[in-house]
Amino acid sequence: NAGVTQTPKFRVLKTGQSMTLLCAQDMNHEYMYWYRQDPGMGLRLIHYSVGEGTTAKGEVPDGYNVSRLKKQNFLLGLESAAPSQTSVYFCASSSRVLGNTEAFFGQGTRLTVV
Amino acid sequence: ELKVEQNPLFLSMQEGKNYTIYCNYSTTSDRLYWYRQDPGKSLESLFVLLSNGAVKQEGRLMASLDTKARLSTLHITAAVHDLSATYFCAVDRKQGGSEKLVFGKGTKLTVNP
């Protein structure tokens, strides 16, 4: 049981380059989230999705886009990377079926923009 | 806007001592979560608190929830070095028919021999 898997685990980008982070979950969860974690800031929500084909903005959505074409996958895109987007990115998923919103997290993606 | 505040943000304690981490949140919510994160690792779920008065215990950690006071506590009993980690609380927020999970900034716990 893989749970939540993020790809890639590490990446270095040059300013202005684009990239896509992939999150895949095998728990049939409805909800999926993308967070960024910076020192002293906790986890901040970038975008989230409540189901296939739907997405919504979180606290810090600027500079990012997302898509959820399949229930098990949630993609986070950076169209034109900036040094301020250097961070560790976590994907998470959760279910609402049992009224329990416990979120399960991926291993994280460490992104450096130079 | 839902805000989640933890204190302290840094905690250094000796093995064998007891201490409590506090988590306050600003709007009504019935669900609160505690997570643990080791350096360079992902977040691991510790406790799920789903109703007022809920109390859960696992080993040397005990979590409780008071929804009327909008307060959760994570109590550490007789700390050991293995408990050194960063602890996060998180609260659900319903917005526009959907739900978001909002995190506090975390409490970095260091347990010294």
Molecular structure report:
Chain A has no helices and 11 strands. Chain A has strands at 4-7, 10-13, 19-25, 31-38, 42-51, 54-57, 64-67, 73-78, 87-94, 104-105, 109-113. Chain A is globular. The mean pLDDT of chain A is 93. Chain B is mainly beta and 113 residues long. Helix content of chain B is 0%, strand content 60%. Chain B has no helices and 11 strands. In chain B, strands 2, 4, 5, 9, 10 and 11 form a 6-stranded mixed beta sheet that branches. Chain B has a 5-stranded antiparallel beta sheet with strand order 1-3-8-7-6, with no helix packed on it. In chain B, a hairpin with a 2-residue loop joins strand 9 (85-95) and strand 10. Chain B is globular, with a radius of gyration of 14 Å. The mean pLDDT of chain B is 91. Chain A binds chain B through residues 31, 33, 35, 40-45, 48, 50, 56, 58, 90, 92, 94, 96, 99-108, and chain B through 9, 31, 33, 41-45, 48, 50, 88, 90, 92, 96, 98-106.
Q: TL;DR?
A:
Chain A is mostly beta strands and 114 residues long.
What topology emerges from the helices and strands here?
The complex is a heterodimer of chains A (114) and B (113).
Chain A: E1 4-7, E2 10-13, E3 19-25, E4 31-38, E5 42-51, E6 54-57, E7 64-67, E8 73-78, E9 87-94, E10 104-105, E11 109-113
Parallel strand pairs in A: 2-11
Antiparallel strand pairs in A: 1-3, 3-8, 4-5, 4-9, 5-6, 7-8, 9-10, 9-11
Chain B: E1 4-7, E2 10-14, E3 19-25, E4 32-37, E5 43-49, E6 55-58, E7 61-66, E8 71-76, E9 85-95, E10 98-103, E11 107-112
Parallel strand pairs in B: 2-11
Antiparallel strand pairs in B: 1-3, 3-8, 4-5, 4-9, 6-7, 7-8, 9-10, 9-11
